[in-house]
Amino acid sequence: MEENRIYIFDTTLRDGEQAPGYSMNLDEKVRMALQLEALGVDVLEAGFAIASEGDFSSVQAIAAILKETAVASLSRALKKDIDAAWQAVKGAKRPRIHTFLATSDLHLQYKLKMSRSQALMQATEMVRYARNLCGEVEFSAEDATRTDLDFLCEVVEAVIDAGASVVNLPDTVGYALPEDMKRMVGTVMKRVANIDRAIIAVHCHNDLGLAVANSLAGLKAGARQIEGTLCGIGERAGNAAIEEVAMAIRTRSDELPFTYALKTEEITKSARLLGQITGIKANPSKAIVGANAFAHESGIHQHGMMANSLTYEIMTPESVGVMTTSFVLGKHSGMHAFEKRLVELGYTLTKEEVKSLFAEFKNLADRKKTVGDRDLIALVESTTQTSPVVWELDNFVVNSGNLMTSTACVTLRKGDKKYQEVARGTGPVYASLRAVEKIIRHPFSLEDYTLQAVTEHRDALGEVFVKISDGHGIYRGRGVSTDVIEASILSCLAAVNRMLDEASLSRSGSVKPTSAPNFANDMLSSHSDKKKEAIDG
Ligand code: KIV
Ligand code: ZN
């Protein structure tokens, strides 16, 4: 094993997905997993197999599809969890069981009601049990940074003896400072007699904004696996952002002389896919992947950049896959130029998808003089859907003004039939969404709505993200159009199609609804008994 090679363990689909608003369905998790493999993560934690049928199926599907990356499932240190994890990952090229038990007195006393010696025994027995099933076993000492160091060393040595090839020392509650990480990892490296038979990992949460600094401190002290998520998503304040760790190492190799398999040029594409799937974009000033991460606004900076980019740029946009040359297409551009640009922007689309996007692009080019990269990205991201399309927008008319109640008449298509409803509301968006709700006859409440312009100009595309809830789950949707009402209806329909897809899956017993029904009493409209009318067919 090369001494300075570090391993990147990605838990975007497990610890990351636990964060509110980030849950993904099976197709989305598979798409994300394929991109994480293209990014070059060494291990991908695909879920917590015993947590739900949905989790189990996604871990299993990801295990079956990844070609090189190790696929892990989390499990408590319990036989039934380990069995489920094994059943889910065993089809992987490189399966890994990741089992954990808390080791801090606080967790042992109040959460597990267990003594240290009981915990030591359970951890050891369960690692041995897992190792009899799977060649790669990782053990995590939950809340390691608040665990008595002597006891931690004892646990690490025992689980290595029992067969763990990776021992993770998580900063579960994001409490540690870099000095603490250094002391903890340094002590374990020095005191544990069989340390040469395992890799030490660090898994840092960001409650004090120190997750990346702590991960780097852990590496400096001898850890060789870091665990984190794309864009730092995760429980509470999130996990260490893997792109930040990777770029810190690439940029400061003088202080951090580590190597890894991550292809940093795939970072932007990966972060974009995460945003596209979850509907949550990175904060504009987020390091590495924020929209402003490579923007130079002030005159002094721009002047310096023109003279020599090193004045204000510590890493190039290209090194993280940001395209610096922009390209403009118009209504006379052909399919070939359009497809070529999509490939340059990093999208891998089927012929069918390109064809349907091209029609959307022509539509847009008719309304907008020039179509730039940001327009194309918005178009791709709003139209590449992962759920089957049940309802589509046919047309709408709104009547609105500051002195009147808004009215919307919306016509939707389902198969070859059209359905129309009229609804009123305090504004044209509200009225339109109520009309949609009346047509689909599945009540939902609007949980979140954001509208932003994709570019600066007056003819800019408006991009709308919505979250809706039917009391069983929260469903996201995104829509773009030069008309903000149209963008709103499109985003709502994207969410509605997901909602209906999930509803039919849970009726057929394939997926259990995961979120609690907490918004049930605030539907957009109470359901009328009026039969919806099929028009035109
Ligand atoms: O933060 C944590 O301790 C975890 C473990 C389950 C690895 O996520
Ligand atoms: Zn965690």
Structure description:
With 537 residues, the chain is of the alpha/beta class. It has 17 helices and 15 strands. It has an eight-stranded parallel β-barrel with strand order 1-2-3-4-5-6-7-8, surrounded by seven helices. Helix 7 links the parallel strand 5 and strand 6. The site of zinc ion (ZN) has 5 residues, from loops.
Structural descriptors:
537 residues, alpha/beta, TIM Barrel, 4 domains, eight-stranded parallel barrel, four-stranded antiparallel beta sheet, 17 helices, disordered C terminus, binds 3-methyl-2-oxobutanoic acid, binds zinc ion
Mean pLDDT: 89
CATH overall fold name of the largest domain = TIM Barrel
Biggest sheet: strand arrangement: 1-2-3-4-5-6-7-8
Number of self-contained structural domains: 4
Query: Over the alpha carbons, how many angstroms does the gyration radius reach?
Result: 25 Å
